[in-house]
Design brief:
Its main location: cytoplasm. Its EC number is 2.5.1.157. It contains ten helices and ten strands. The chain is α/β, with parallel strands linked by helices and about 300 residues long. It has two domains: about 170 residues, no CATH class; about 45 residues. A six-stranded parallel beta sheet has the order 2-1-5-3-6-4. Strands 7-8 form a two-stranded antiparallel ribbon. Helix 5 crosses helix 6. It is globular. The chain starts with about 25 loop residues before the first helix and ends with a helix. The structure holds S-adenosylmethionine (SAM). The site of S-adenosylmethionine (SAM) has 22 residues, from helix 2, strand 5 and helix 4.
């Protein structure tokens, strides 16, 4: 187990919910922050309307770590390895997904996360942490500065906010995220999808909604791909059409060949001209008198009389 400031090393403040004591030395700046938060929540004597907790494995850079920031703000309680949590445990080790039916558990017992590195999950003793209500999160996209745009891998504050949002407590989600400059962007980015999940009930319905969403975005991606290809066609010409053209020109040359093959030759190799080729006299060669009668050439008369 990693050594350091992780709250798995000391019992610290696990019973401090509602008290103003923190686990980090209680600087006046932090106490000031807490005062601000209490005023902000309008819930006297509490840092946040529902309990939040984390198992902190000290894997992350404290300056970038959202869990540590929540702790500095006095919003989250640290839990020890071996300690279980009664509320919803949002964890990569979860079985079902967070769903609106979890709302009562969240409101009564709160929500918790595992503050660790995604790259070091195998170092986390999942069998010694957690609780009765361990949950995965359904498909959502991170908005934090480290993993922006990445699906599923949310940081701790996003994971807690997602849990609150899915169970229909958008007020808690936005209050929590407003402590981070980028925070409300998470709700914006996932607005439509969160609304879909909020309309569900149990784990299965959230899983079904997630599956439908994933199919939809896959179809849309495919459509965009097709549109991009069609765009190329306007720029470059239809490749299939070019293929047809090639075929057509082959056909054309075939036609020419056919025409050529329709020419017959006599025994001396002279081309035999078909009579039908000579049927129509050239219009320009027809002359008319003043009354509109065709002037017949004497030579023509000879020719016609000879047939
Ligand atoms: C792996 S830690 C990374 C924390 C990050 N260093 C930070 O600054 O917050 C994120 C935690 O959020 C929760 N979490 C995030 N995305 C999740 C998901 N898709 N399913 C379940 N839990 C998730 C888990 O508790 C997970 O351990």
């Amino acid at each position: 187990m990693a050594k350091g400031k992780g709250k798995n090393k000391s019992r610290g403040d696990e019973t401090s919910r509602g008290s103003h004591k923190g686990s980090n030395g209680h600087s006046s700046r932090l106490n000031h922050k807490r005062m601000e938060l209490r005023q902000h929540d309008g819930v006297k004597g509490t840092k946040f309307p529902v309990k939040m907790a984390m198992w902190d494995f000290d894997h992350c850079d404290p300056k970038r770590c959202s869990g540590k920031k929540l702790e500095r703000l006095g919003l989250i309680t640290s839990l020890k390895v071996g300690q279980k949590f009664q509320g919803i445990v949002v964890s990569p080790n979860g079985q079902g997904v967070v769903c609106p039916d979890d709302r009562a558990i969240v409101e009564e017992f709160g929500a918790s996360v595992v503050e660790c590195s995604w790259a070091r999950l195998d170092e986390v003793p999942f069998n010694r942490i957690g609780g009765k209500h361990e949950r995965l999160l359904p498909y959502l996209v991170a908005a934090n500065q480290v993993n922006y745009g990445r699906p599923w891998r949310l940081n701790c504050v996003e994971a807690l906010a997602a849990c609150f949002a899915i169970v229909g407590r958008m007020d808690l989600a936005s209050d929590l995220l407003s402590n981070f400059s980028w925070g409300l962007g998470f709700l914006e980015l996932n607005k439509e999808l969160l609304e879909v999940y909020q309309k569900c009930t149990d784990h299965e319905s959230v899983k079904k909604a997630e599956e439908d969403w994933l199919n939809k975005i896959e179809e849309e991606a495919q459509q965009r791909k097709n549109e991009a290809r069609d765009g190329d066609i306007w720029m470059m010409g239809n490749v299939n059409r070019n293929m047809n053209k090639m075929t057509l020109s082959d056909e054309e040359s075939d036609e020419e060949e056919t025409e050529a093959s329709s020419i017959r030759y006599d025994n001396l190799g002279n081309a035999i001209i078909d009579e039908s080729d000579e049927e129509e006299p050239e219009i320009s060669s027809i002359r008319y008198d003043n009354l509109g009668n065709v002037i017949v050439d004497e030579s023509d008369e000879e020719a016609s009389s000879s047939t």
